[in-house]
Amino acid sequence: MEILSRQIARWQRQADSGELPDELYEIIAENAAPSHRRILSNLARVSRVVDDDGSIRTYEDFKNDWEYMNTTIGKPETCYLCGQHPILEHCVLIDPESKKEITVGNICVNRFIGISSEDQETLKLTVKSHKADKKKADFAIAFPNALYALRRYEGMMNDKKPLRTLNKTMVRRLTTVGYPGPKTITQWKEFIYTAEKDFQIWVEQKEIEDQEKQKRHHEAKRRDMAFQQEIVKRRNEWRIQAKGWMTDCDILTLNAWERRMVHRVSNRIMNGGLSSLKDGHKSFYDQMRVLFFMQRPNFQCDDPLFQEVTAWLKLDLNEWTRSFCRSIQIRIIQDGSENLSEKQIQVIESTRKRLSSE
Predict the structure, then answer these.
(1) Range of the domain at 243
(2) What is the four-CA torsion angle of 124, 129, 132, 136, rounded to 10 degrees?
(3) What's the pTM?
(4) pLDDT by residue (tens digit) across 148-165?
């Protein structure tokens, strides 16, 4: 009994110092799959494999001594259990009784140690957070002036739809998570490689476009001023024409309807000139010009019918007959008596008979 107690004490001292024979660790791992034996043997070397009564503990027993403490992400390390290098997710395990700590990868933690569902969720969140921090740090190192570049090239990027989308995506990602996604960062690398050269070309093009725009603006302003001057000139001419028309009509003896027409034609001339007169206004204007022409002292018409109608106008005629005779005078001067209509000739014959009988 005393010998057994001494052997147990010796194994415990050897276990604490890591001096147990390799054969013991191999025996502990011999029932595991060949690919897992080295992992179990490595875990046994840092575990309390000798029980208080001197018996050798199994893997299923001593693996529960280890507790998940935290996960960090930093410079590459090596997994203590499987030897994988590099591992970026450093899962720290601790044996609370022996105070020993080991660093392993997240795959070995879940496969060979086992952690609670709560610790698994914490691990996932920690890994996710560390990955995001690493991506953010990597991007900041690779592109320290990304935000400055986005501000500098914003105008150029907004000129083209694909670059405009890239600009919006980059600004949104950098201001929310601090780094772009895989597709966006590929597009950003392609863009930033020639961005400064493209920007200089874009600036030169913009300067040329601004000069052309300014030139077009000045030309449009010049045309507008010329148009306004032309409008003022034409309106002055139209006012003179309208005034001349009213002056000429003042010396004519007109009935009430003709006086109203004179003012209507005057307003039309005032707003658009003589060329704006159409249809009835143009016909009335021509007739009044003929009447005005007839008022000249040296006016003479040798047409016999014109002379006869002129003599009728010296008689005491009713308003309708007087207007008809004057219209015949105008028609004869404009087109000649041979172009009178049959209806006009019939009225002339009846007027001649009526006046002869009086």
Answers:
(1) 220-297
(2) -160
(3) 0.46
(4) 999 999 999 999 888 999
